[in-house]
Amino acid sequence: MRQTQPRLRAAFSLGVTALLVIGLIASQWLLGDSPQQMQFNARLAPPGVDHWLGTDALGRELWARTLAGLALSFWVGCLAALLSTLIALSLAAIATLSARLDALVSLLIDTLLSVPHLILLMLIAFALGGGTQAVIIAVAVTHWPSLARVLRAELWQLRQAPYVRISRALGKSRWFVLHGHLLPHLIPHCLVGALLLFPHAILHEAALTFLGFGLSPSQPAIGVLLADAMRYLSGGYWWLGVFPGLGLLLMVLGFKRLSSHLRRAL
Amino acid sequence: MRLITPIAKRLARLALVLLCVALVSYGLMMASPIDPIDAYLGPQMAQVSPEQRALIAQRWGFDESPAVQFGHWLRQLVSGDLGWSHVYNQPVSEVIGQRFQRSIALLGSAWLLSALVGFSLGVVAGAKEGSKLDNIISTYAFITASTPAFWMAILAVLLFSVTLGWTPTCCAGPAGALNQEVTLATRLHHLLLPVATLALLGIANITLHTRTRMLELMRSDVATHAFAQGASRLDVAWRHGLRHASLPAITLAFASLGELFGGSILIEQVFAYPGLGQATVAAGLRSDVPLLLGIALFTALFVSVGNMIADSLYGVIDPRIKPGGL
């Protein structure tokens, strides 16, 4: 009974996640500019009936800001994960073309893996001058190695498969084999890979923004909210520090569950 | 000879990787839109004439091509000179040395703690698969593995420092006290919460990994045979499991040094702990290029040596893996 369920579970998990994401995006459309609206008569109000999750030092509603931050995280994470998967796929494909290119790609992987992720992220964000674009590129450029390794191993194995060797023997070109035979095999790997990258991407985006290298402080990103909260911690304004992080954690957990269900189903 | 060749190969690889790190990070710094002279001058920028700027640029060698500048920098690097940090007004090597001394207390104790606790939890969870204890441990590890490090630190400050008042909220010692006056007990008191937070984050990975290894063993023929002879689950876990799971755990601990360091940057930032992580953030935000480059190289060395130890351990203990053949 339990053996037949993975696909059902994956579909259910996918449905729930999709619904939540659609809700998140729709909420941004409905909220308009309320995440930035200041109410000077309700500064640092604790959570309650009037202010669901409380307000910050400028009287801005924390629930609206947290939702807006999660939506920002979602978009940044999506773009970064997609870009990263593309990089992984192209480099894995390049690596299978010749032994010399393979050595080059693995040197690149070793180089990237030898610097702590966060420092590399900071260096890249610094080089690009900060901002949303810089964060997306920085996260994309640092997260591809693990997926590239998986894809590369898969490609090396596929190359030895009889049908690929026959195709080569029949005189098909390398590029034909690559995109006619090999790529269709890799699509599921890429999908799961991108989904696995996504939680890492949003966590690193938030960390980078928290340190001041990411999204600009005027945007209601989760990292910005938590960096703001740092100033009010010792005053006992706990809600500023708790809720944005909780939102991020729930989002990460949701996507991790989805990817583990999908991996089991595929 | 059989032992020396792979080691020499590894060292050569290490040197090559470090050279690549130097090249990549130097390239990134050159690409940055932030002008190093502006960053150096700071608010005094307006008082400096274009002629004086040109003089500074010439003195620093900015009028030469990037390749020549990289050559200069590399030559100085080899002779041990990492340059001057304008944020701390000290040579970069001194800043890194002093800061690392503080960070190593944080990193080292968190590392040991997370390896020991993570391993024990993983063994217990894996040995009693499906039990209530296993569920609790697995859920805990799954959740902490997804928690943003800096948020965990914020929660820790809120709970233990602000609400309960057990630990200080910041820094490596009382504000305003001189370095010599701070006693060891005060230092440890300030270190307690950052270490606990950093360790808590590292535990998750090692626990999950060790648990998988234990499950593997518990379903293997070795375990079935032992069970058939009347051994209990605990017997098997103790006699076979520990050996089976300990190597991967040690390897993972060495291989995750980079992640540990990344976590320490965030945690030092939250606790305002004056270690290498905080210096990294300051260098980045205030465009201290020599310091940033120095830290990138230093951490790359630190992480690469960790990775190298992890690879070698596998080769030494598990003879099925050929030395140097990875």
From TrEMBL, chain A:
Q: Where in the cell is it found?
A: Cell membrane
* Major site of localization recorded for this protein: membrane
Q: How does the UniProt record describe the way this protein sits in the membrane?
A: Multi-pass membrane protein
The source's superkingdom equals Bacteria
Name the record gives this protein: ABC transporter permease
Recall the taxonomic lineage recorded for the source organism. Bacteria, Pseudomonadati, Pseudomonadota, Gammaproteobacteria, Oceanospirillales
Q: Which SUPFAM superfamilies match?
A: MetI-like
ABC transmembrane type-1 domain segment(s): 70-259
Per the UniProt record, one Pfam family is BPD_transp_1
The protein's matches in InterPro entries, at most eight in alphabetical order, are given as:
BP-dependent_transpt_permease (IPR050366), MetI-like (IPR000515), MetI-like_sf (IPR035906)
What Gene Ontology terms for biological process does this UniProt record contain? transmembrane transport
From TrEMBL, chain B:
Write the lineage as a comma-separated list.
Answer: Bacteria, Pseudomonadati, Pseudomonadota, Gammaproteobacteria, Oceanospirillales
Q: Where are the transmembrane segments?
A: 104-127, 139-160, 188-208, 249-271, 291-310
The yes or no answer to whether the keyword Membrane is present is yes
Q: Tell me the domain of life.
A: Bacteria
Q: What is its main location?
A: membrane
Q: Which key words tag this protein in UniProt?
A: Cell membrane, Membrane, Transmembrane, Transmembrane helix, Transport
The organism encoding this protein is Vreelandella boliviensis LC1
Q: Name one GO biological process term.
A: transmembrane transport
Quote the subcellular location field of this record: Cell membrane
- Similarity annotation: Belongs to the binding-protein-dependent transport system permease family. OppBC subfamily.
Name the CDD domains for this protein. TM_PBP2
Task: Write the protein's name.
Answer: ABC transporter permease
Ranges for the ABC transmembrane type-1 domain? Answer: 100-310
Q: Which SUPFAM superfamilies match?
A: MetI-like (SSF161098)
Cellular component terms per the entry's GO annotation: plasma membrane
**Pfam families from the xrefs?**
BPD_transp_1, BPD_transp_1_N
User: Record's InterPro entries?
Assistant: BPD_transp_1_N, MetI-like, MetI-like_sf
Membrane-protein topology: Multi-pass membrane protein
